[in-house]
Amino acid sequence: MSSSESLPSVKSVQSDFSTKEVTGDDTQSTPLDGGYGWGLCAGTGIGLICIPSIAILPQWFSKKISLANGICSAGAGIGGLIICFSTKGMLDSLGLAWSLRITAAVAFSVNLTAMLLIRSRDNQILLPAQGIFNFHLRSYHVLLLLGWSFVIMFGFITLMFSLSNYASTIGSSERDAAMVPAMLNLGAAIGRPVIGFASDYYGRVEVAGILTFTCGVLVFVLWIPTTTYGMLLLFAVVGGTILGIFWAVICPLATEVVGLKKLPAFLPIAWLSVVIPSAGKSRTI
């Protein structure tokens, strides 16, 4: 599982755990130790692992940066696909408590291995000492990139956190509803390397704009009219290929706009720009 983009995998675990009714000897769930507490801990962990690692990959590539980032972010789709199926099986056979323990152990092992293997080239690149906001934020291109990030994250969070619930509203069973995020992750695993290759060949800005528009069209053409489970699965696979375009191209786009040396200073601003759309949608779930 790629540490560069963990939301699909996190959502897969959250969906499966949230459908498990806690009864018998298990402790009753409250908003704090259930949704909000889980979200706070998971978000903190993702932030500590994901944010520092994203800026490292472009340091190792002078060409094909988007392709490399696409392959890296596709790991989250593969990991999410595995989590979707394995978590459901663990819940059915082992119960909630052991499912959580096993998931935590797997996440710890994978991330520990990645942290031991990853290497930075900060010394070779000679990154200047700089604060978070010490470059011209009012640059026209920077503001456009931040605006795109703000808008695209609304769509990403809405689809990622709504499709499984939508499957239930059209009469799908719990097992069928759990299959929807799995297909979404399958699409992500397939589509993100392709997005990276296309971005390097046709241009990062051009591909990001076209795919953002395409994703919006797919929502109106496939998702909104959908009343059958089969069509919803089709939308999940097709939409998944371009759904996480933000995570696939944000680092190459930022490198192109602000340069490699200013990338570590820009990325925290990009994360701040997507807080409101991420938190705003999560309040309705």
Automatic annotation (TrEMBL):
It comes from the Eukaryota. Belongs to the major facilitator superfamily. Monocarboxylate porter (TC 2.A.1.13) family. The chain crosses the membrane at residues 36-57, 69-91, 97-118, 139-163, 178-195, 207-225, 231-251, 263-280. It comes from Eutypa lata (strain UCR-EL1) (Grapevine dieback disease fungus). Gene3D superfamilies: MFS general substrate transporter like domains. It is a multi-pass membrane protein. This is Putative mfs transporter protein. It holds the Pfam family MFS_1. One of its GO terms (molecular function) is transmembrane transporter activity. Residues 1-15 have a biased composition (Low complexity). Residues 1-28 are annotated as: Disordered. It is found in: Membrane. InterPro entries: MFS, MFS_trans_sf, Proton-linked_MCT. Keywords: Membrane, Transmembrane, Transmembrane helix. GO terms for cellular component: membrane.
